[in-house]
Amino acid sequence: MAVYTHVSAEALAAFLHRYDVGALVSVKGIAEGVENSNYLVDTDAARFILTLYEKRVAADDLPFFMALLDHLAARGLAVPPAISDRDGAVIQTLEGRPACLIRFLPGVSVSHPTPAQAQAAAAAMGDMHAALADFRRTRVNSMGIATWRPLLDKCGRDLDTIRPGLFDRIDTALATVEQAWPLGLPVSAIHADLFPDNVLMHGDSVTGLIDFYFACTDVRAYDVAVMHSAWTFDARGENPDAAVGAALLAGYTAAFGLSDAERAALPLLARGACIRFLLSRAWDWLHTPADALVMRKDPLAYLRRLDWYEAHPEAFA
Ligand SMILES: Nc1ncnc2c1ncn2[C@@H]1O[C@H](COP(=O)(O)OP(=O)(O)O)[C@@H](O)[C@H]1O
Ligand SMILES: N[C@@H](CCOP(=O)(O)O)C(=O)O
To answer: How far out from the chain centre does Cα 46 lie?
Structure first.
């Protein structure tokens, strides 16, 4: 359960008092998520998400994320903008953490996406990239390729406690990816973490894209590669579903398009995505206290994906 910071009833009431959102009726910690503390807040007027930013979200980056959400919402995309208080402020401090009150979006995230759901979600990513073509703010990817080797070195040989030989395995895979990383592909604002749990759906329709807290300026096709790695395998990183992968590429291509150079780069970008998520999960695996109210995610599920992408360079043909 991702609740790192407890919010007292008194602090929440004082916080809500800043807004024109009605009176507090109930508040519950949200089990899903690993990065931030999230609460479901009901007032007598509406339902909201309260997020307190933890771990990897820097307070200085919040204006970028909020501007991105406003930009997408203004273009009609189903993303949840933060609510302004009576003075027009969206970023507050609550229990000592940066915090925002966010519009609640309906829908559920699917655990086992069908091809139709993957197609719709990838089309939503394509629509998002189209809408971001004129978004001018930039943010360096705090989990981009330049950070992978320092993170590998920080994890060090502790990786071998997760799986013997893991450090050397990733060291070698990363060297290959670094050496071949494509230069010159289109760069734009991207989501960078569009996993199934960050897409809200009703049946086969997308009702919301959420969790933009890794959004950044990076290779646009990398967003597609991240999505492919997250959507086409089961939770253990096994049983890749070719129909889901094909539907995802079809959905994205129909909505936005992929150049030949972007498509050709996808196998390598996907291997990079595997290293990125393996390393962040491994760091959390090694450093999350045993009593923390959060479900650690399995780093080896991304090793299995990496094995598969290395063995199947034809996956995106
Ligand atoms: N705007 C929203 N509308 C509806 N549910 C949301 C919204 N934002 C977050 N949630 C719920 O909270 C969960 C955790 O949010 P998320 O942003 O993914 O957390 P984290 O950043 O910690 O991973 C989501 O899986 C979803 O169930
Ligand atoms: N998607 C990442 C972890 C980030 O968590 P999220 O709940 O914010 O998507 C992973 O699965 O490793």
So the answer is: 26
